[in-house]
């Protein structure tokens, strides 16, 4: 639980960012961008979500930036802890495992995967960044690394994209599809506002830090492979399938968001 001074600083920062965004973006309408209403169950705010560090050294500072960025939210904190997995990025109940590996020339830069229970609560998550592409000159930049890591972790918090048209002007948020990540490396005020809406209500139980297992966890399949992601639910503006859902039975499912290489 944060002390009073921390809360005052944080709330002042978010309010200030919101005011700047309102002035700078007057006339721009931002849609609600909750990811299907999915959220972590918890009994109070702010709550702390652990990010398991399974990334290589080239990603350590990127993950630290992403964690710091999302912790600006008034309703949640993220904290980096030792990872419990490696290349296969096997999920851990009650937290998000963040992994980097050379996953191959499969055309995806990053994945966010969340496991949903029958009540629409996130029970665990995984973020994967594909070093096969991030070792190339095109994507081996601070801007691309920040955008992809920030966006994929944002998905595991319950956020969808703010805009999915690559040619539109940047919204100055990592939750925006773009071909130019220069100004889309961090969350913006609307992301923090949306998190406040998603987590405005309290739950009677918690899935954060939960050790409770579920039947049909999906661990038996290779979730790096698009054939295991299940049914396609959405295409991006370039016609590529970008959101998938795999039914695990018993009302449970795995939902996957993917960022494709250009």
List keywords for this structure.
25% helix; single chain; 262 residues; 9-stranded mixed beta sheet; Collagenase (Catalytic Domain); alpha/beta
Task: Break the fold down into its secondary structure elements and pairings.
Blueprint: H1 4-24, E1 39-40, E2 47-54, H2 57-71, E3 76-82, E4 96-101, E5 108-116, E6 121-130, H3 131-134, H4 142-157, H5 189-198, E7 231-235, E8 241-249, E9 252-260
Parallel strand pairs: 1-6, 2-3, 2-4, 4-6
Antiparallel strand pairs: 5-6, 5-9, 7-8, 8-9
Helix pairs in contact: 2-4
How would you characterize this protein structure?
- The protein has 262 residues and is an alpha/beta fold.
- It has one domain: Collagenase (Catalytic Domain) (3-Layer(aba) Sandwich), CATH 3.40.390.
- Helices cover 25% and strands 25% of the residues.
- It is built from 5 helices and 9 strands; from the N terminus they run αββαββββαααβββ.
- Strands 1, 2, 3, 4, 5, 6, 7, 8 and 9 form a 9-stranded mixed sheet that branches.
- Helix 2 packs across helix 4.
- It is globular, with a radius of gyration of 17 Å.
- The N terminus is likely disordered.
